[in-house]
Each structure stands twice: as structure tokens, then as C-alpha cells.
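Self-study notes.
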Amino acid sequence: MFHKILIANRGEIALRIIRACKELGIKTVAVFSTADKDSLHVKIADESICIGPPPSLQSYLNINAIISAAELTDAEAIHPGYGFLAENTAFAEICEKCGINFIGPASETMRMMGDKISARQAMIKEGIPILPGTKEGVKDLDAAVKIVKKIGLPVIIKATAGGGGRGMKIVHSPATLANAFATARAEAQACFGNSEVYIEKYCERPRHVEIQIVADKHGNVIHLGERDCSIQRRHQKLIEEAPSTAITPALRKKMGEDAVRAVRAVGYNSVGTMEFLVDRDNNYFFMEMNTRIQVEHPVTEMVTGIDIVKEQIRSAAGIKLRYKQSDIKMNGHAIECRINAEDSSKFTPCPGKIIAYHTPGGLGVRVDSFVYDQYTVLPHYDSLIAKLIVHAETRKDAISRMTRALDEYIIEGINTTIPFHKRIMANKDFIEGNIDTGFLERVVLE
């Protein structure tokens, strides 16, 4: 096992990793920008080191500064968390060349599965269902027009190096294709430094269902069931739950087996997530793979009892997986609400000072957060400030528990998405499980 790990991230995920390391007896190093000097992950880590000014490009995305920090503190490994450098192949390669363990998959595997085109090609080879679309990047508008004529509208244009809804445009009519194609390419270039896009058939009103994978360096791979991430706004997840109300035990088994077979075939050896779209007839289609820990991993932990971050660290250290597929049981139901520092009526960022802070508690309630009373939420970074997770015996009970926990959660001084989540928990369609990725666009919340 590692002696010391540097966490190349901030916020709640940095704190989450530090907690896992402490329970494993591993020393931790926090990195921070000058703006984050008072952040909780800096206070709780065994050591901390400043890596630059507030802008991410000069701090949390500054590879040279992070590698130097690891060398200065004699850290054997780097955990990237999610976002920032978590799926940056160049960063993983540099870690490998510097003799620092990157807590994630090998850079070669990350490159294959992080690129949407090569990932689709790998899934085709393994017989995993995918939506009709291109097998290569689409170079120009003329090629895009030909593809659309072949597979038919609607289509979705996606950045090959993308994720998180960036560089993604839906096209319902020929008249909007040219603008959507140009906009997707521009967004892809701005967000990922790569303007290449591909096109696939757009699946109308699907569920967004993902399978959590855990794999070691000895060829052992298991899945931990599914998460339903269908409650989204502009392809950004807001609420996640496990298990999905749309997935039967037979379908769970089949999707899980496909996910395990696929990641084993590409030699994957870390935790990761296979993301699928599931249509109204329960047909499922591979969408992409996330080669990192997911924001929503806690709902899987709550229903399986397995600490996914610890398993990720153990895998990186070369420790053999302790579980077999037959050991994995899904107990009860878990829901996660992402609490963002945003005006929930407009979903606009709302940084500022928190003047009162009280977290909910009680049986089956978990809060993953890094903020505290008198903490100032910064304008430089993502607006996620907490994740409220509940677990109960049934989905109905989980919704009741989440409603109660949201009522108890007090954050004053800034606007948050707590009121939004309260409205969703009271929504009839949500309560009945009638959800899909277009849920928020269709439902008028009073």
C-alpha cells in the first residue's frame, strides 16, 4: 500500500479522498490555489502545498506545479479526483514517466476509452450495443449532411474528447444542422483543445443509466449495479439514484455482464463507469466511459456498502480485488442531490460568504461537503458545494427521507439549489418514477 498520496483536486472530492486515505493509514498531501488556502481539504490533510494563483490553468491544471509538489513532498501516488486532470492522458503519462503512481487506469487505456470514437470502435468490436452513427470524426459540414441523410433526424453532435455536456448539440431539423455543427466544434475546441466531433442517432426520451465498474491489475473485474442519472439540465446531472426504477434484475445482469466484458477486453484496471442510454423498450446503448471516480459514486456505496474510493486506491497499489460478483448485493434505495451555489430559478452561479450553515442528520443521511459556517464560496471554480445522499429501505422511503433532510439543510448568505430539489421530490412524475433525460424540460415546476 502507498505511504503517501497527493490529491490533485479541491472541494468535496479532495476531502472524500483524504477520508479514505486516513482510514487506510495513508498520509495525504493537499494542493491548493492561493484562493483556497482556507478550504477544508487543506486543513484536514497531513500536509499542504500551494500550487499557484486562483485561475485553474495556473493551479489545479498546472501539471508542472502538481508534479513538483509530489516530488517535494515525496508522495508516491497522485489521486486526480474528478474534473481538472482526472481524464487528462498527458498528465497520466507524465506521472508514469516520473515514477509516480497515477490512481486511475493506464494512460493508454484512458486514451482509448476517453476518446469517444475509439471507445465506440472498441464497443463495436465486443458486440456492445451502440446507437447508429459515425465510426470516425466528422471533418466538415458536407460530411455531416451526408451522415444525417443516412441515419435520419434527430441526431446528436458530440465532441470526441468531450464530457459533461460540453461540445454537444441536438439537431431536429436540417435548417439547424450547420449552426449546431459549427457551435459544437467551437465548444469542443474551447473546452478540450480538440474540435473533432462525431454524430449519432439521437435517442428520444431515454434514461441515462450507468454501471459502476471495479477492476484490479490481476484481471479481476466486477460491477456494482447501476445508477440512474436521468434528472439533468443541459446534460449536467442534478439528481442520481440507485438502483434505477427502469432496470429489471434480468436487464441489470445483462448490462452488468456487458460492461464487465467490455472493460476486461480493453485491459481496464481501476474504477470506472460505463454509461448507457436506455430507451422506453428497455433497449440499451453504450454512450461513453468515464475513466475516473464519479461525482455520484456515493449512491452506489450506500446500496452496496463498498467504499469505491478505497477500492480505487487498492487497485492502483496492485492489490487484488477482494470481491467476487456473487458477493455484490444491492440493498435498499439511495438518492443523491447535488447542492450547488446557484440561484435555482435561473441556475446562475451564486458565490459569496456563508453566514449560517447546518447540515441534516439522522439515520441514512450523508453529506459530502467542504464548506462551513463563514466560508466564502469562490467564483473561480465549479458551483458544487455539497452532495446530500440518503439511503432507505424503499424508493418511497428514500424520497421521504430526502425531503426531510432538505428541510433540515440550512445554508444562508448565498442562494443554493436546495429549493429546486424540494420541488423535484414533491413532483408526482418523479415520485412515480416517470423520468427520463428530458424530464426537466417537460415538467413545469411551480
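Second protein, same conventions, sequence then structure:
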Amino acid sequence: MSEGVSIAVVGSGYVGLVAAACFAEIGHRVVCVDNDEAKVRMLHEGGVPIHEEYLPELLNRHRANRVEFTSDLKAATQGAQAIFIAVGTPQSETGSADLSYVDAVASEIARSIDDYKVIVEKSTVPVYTNEWIRRVLERNGVPQELFDVASNPEFLREGTAVTDFLHPDRIVLGAETERAVTVLRAIYEPLTSGAYYRMHHAVPGARTPDDPPPMLLTTTQAAEIIKHASNAFLATKISFINVVANICEAAGADVQDVARGMGMDSRIGPKFLRAGIGYGGSCFPKDVAAFRHVAEQMNVDFGLLEEVEKINGEQKRRFFQKVRSALWTFRGKKIAALGLAFKGGTDDIRESPALEIVELMLREGALVRAYDPAAAARASEMIPSGPQMQYVDDPYEAAQDADAVVILNDWQEFADLDLERLRAALRYPIVVDGRNLFDPAVMAAQGFTYLSVGRPGANSVAMRARQRVRVLRHTADGCARAKPAKVYLRAAVLDAAFRPRNRGPWHA
């Protein structure tokens, strides 16, 4: 293993580029292939096209040493022992995964094979894709003894993908021959043996030399299903807790307390039980739809996934209505939108709930100033700057003279905002938080009208109103005169929401 395994990674997106950098990090020789000449040139010159923690450091460490970039798939294929296919599998109009890129790559690989290769599915693909790749190779005249097709699904979270790759919960390998297993074991040996974690330059994470990641060897079909089933289950947890959050709002309970109580059960666990505005990104929406389509093709009723999708869409609409309830109307209102990527820690705007909500606010006549630490450039390609939409470089600039702040993803920078400075910048002290980043009691103490997801509303005026209702209920003549608590609370919230704290123009 001192010289490592020769690897070709086809595709330089979120999966391919991270895989290429991490394979180089653990000692292999890697060629990363992409048909986008401009992207290849940028990678050659030291650029990094995506936002991922540790990725720039790994590329700088191994560029032109253990990892190189090219658009020549034939040359990369011929020099590799293992070829990882990491191209996009976008959702088609039917909901199935579009495998045209995988098909094209497999066809081109077939024309380049002159000795034994292990061809590995790294993209998220439906079950039996390995069989189709095999057929493509055979139809192009590649002898069966010159290749094996294996499945090695990725379980990477955008924003922490490098750490997830190097410190995985598990490594899943689907292979049908011992020959293929031998190559794949050699690739991951620095991780499974714990050797990588002894290196002085190792990326920090949960794994240690004494606790290396486990490896699951299974069939290619099982490996393909594991990936889709895992993402569908995580999406289901998110939709489930969002429905629970809506029940909590109606009951006056705190969904975070409920989620904490659920997560203490070892059978459930605490992860992915965070209420919010719904899931997005390049994986969950696409993979839930694709897995449902796979079930339909196999005559299996998986109606649960339809409900998961329905709940996710409804959650975004509910949050939009929550913002509307705080402002009464959007037309002419000035809104600071914090967060544009589908979550914090990434610049990926694909299927972003944040952008969907911004578009709805713009459609209703709002004036939006938006800030995201990494995703503004990508977002501006989808929603260009204009009279209604501005992109700024600072959250406080976004909030200056705004009628409300709307928090749409969970960057740590947003959780660390200086609340006094934020309140001073705003025209009205309204914060509508789609990620539950703040303590309602703290926001109330700071004088904010604060609305979040699945938690009782808290602001100082509303709290005084509750106290007034309780006092009235305990007096003989007060009980006769007192209005229902909800009337007082609604009046208190509206009173706080529409009392200006700052007056001034909306700076262009």
C-alpha cells in the first residue's frame, strides 16, 4: 500500500471532487476527470468550485502530486485500477433518476479498457444500475474477465463531506467477486486499519486508530438500496418532526423538548429531529422521488414516501404564511433574508427551501436584502439582483431599516449574531426564525417579536399579556370582563410587531 492504488474519479462535483481529494489524502494516486474544460483548468490553477471545509487544504496538499485533473477520460481510464463513476443523476420528469450521464460514461469507459478494471458506482443510483453498466460494457465488446462492476455508495453531508468521507459511520461495498473485493479493500485499508488516523496531518474527526470505521460487504443490489433507503429514512425523520412541530405549536408545547425526549430513546436517536422549513439540497428530494419510483416499478406500494414529499412541501408553505402573519402583507415590506443555500456550511442552492421562500416573498411584492456566507453568487444566477432583490456582504447590512429578519438556514454565523446590534439595525424588532437558532426567552428579553418553528411565541409584550390574563381570571369581576387569552396575545403580538424601533430610508 505504500504506493497506493491508481484511481480514476469521473466527475468533479460535490461527490467526485471530495472523493478524489480524500483518496489522495489516504495515499492513492488519483486522476479526476470532468468534461468541463473551464472547470478542469480552474482546478489545475488552484481554484475550488465548491464550498467544503478542509477541501481547499487537501487539494493544495495533493495537487500535482497525488491528484491531477483532466478532461481525457480515455487516458485516465487506461491508467487506473479502479474507476469511480461520480456523475450527476438528476431527477427526470417521471421522478426516476436520470442515468444518461452514467450511461455515457460507461460507454466511453468501454472503449478504453485494455486490462482488468473495477468500475465502481459512486453516484446515487437505483437498484440494478450495476447490471445496466455491465450490459453497456458487454455490448461494447468488453470481455467479462476484464472488469467487475461494484457499488460503493457515499454518505456525505454537504458542508462536512471531507470529514464524513475520512471518518465515516460505515463503508458499504457491494461486489460480486473476490477480485473486486480485494481492490476495494486495498483502497479503504488506510481507514479500516486505523493507519490514517495515526498520521500527523490527518483531518480531525470521530474515528481513531483504536476505533476505525466498520466495513459492510454485501451484494451490489443491497448496496444500491442501502443508499436510497438511508436518504429516504432521514427525509422521513425530518418530515415527521416537522409535523410534530406543527402539533406542538397548536398545543403550546416546545418541539425541541419533544425532540430531545424522543432522541433519548436509543431506538430513535437525536439526529435529524430538528424542526425547520423542510429539507432540500441535491440528495433528499431527488432520492426520495427516485426510491418511490423504484418501488412503483417493482409493484411495491410505498405511499409513505408520497406523504413525506407532501409534508415537506407543506412545511415551506406554512413557514411562508408564518412570515406573512408577522407582517400582515408583503407588498412594499423590506425583509432581511439570512440564508440562501439549502442549509448552512455549503454553497449548494439546489432545491433550496430558502430560495423558494425568497421567491414567494418577491412574488408578493416584498423588497428583499439577502445574505449568505457562501451561496450569494450561486443564488444571484437564479434570482438576479434588481429593484426588489439585493445581495449584501453582511447580515447587519441586510437588516438595516428592515421590517423583519427571516432566518432561512442554519449557518453558525447567524446563531452568533449580536442581538443588540441586530435590533438597533431593524426598523421593527421582528425575527422569524425557520431554523430555531435562538432561545425564545432570550429574544423576548431583548425586545424582539420572535416567531420560530414548533415553539410558543415569545416576546416581552406577549408575556405581559399572559400575566394580565392570569390576573383577570383570578378576580371575581375580572373573569366576567376578560377576553380569551388568545385575543390578548394576538393583540400584544401585533402591537409589538408594528411599533417601529428605527425610522429611516431603505438604503439602495
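Instructor comment on the second fold: Residues 459-498, 502-508 have pLDDT under 50 and may be disordered.
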